[in-house]
Amino acid sequence: MTQLSLHRNREHVEPQHAAAREENEQRSAWLHEWNTVWFVCECSDHVCPDQIPLNRSQYEELRTSGTRFGVAASAKHVGPSSDRVVARHEHHWIVESATS
Ligand SMILES: [Zn+2]
Question: What one-character DSSP code corresponds to residue 6?
Fold first, then answer.
């Protein structure tokens, strides 16, 4: 899966979030086959190993804004200065990341 190359234009995303978001864009294709897909945590720790289960509507909720990211449900995945938690779900939180 990760060997696939992406040719679409990238949105402007903070660099620390971009890799996880790119990975998750690929994984979102699996929502055509499964109700729930494991996505990678999009917190600012670019080596964060955590994954979060999302269904289609939860994934689409995340993608309504280019500044919102899905992270594992714990405060340690929220950036202390740049991130603000906007929704808390059972297995994932949505953070709004301040962009300059
Ligand atoms: Zn994380």
Answer: P
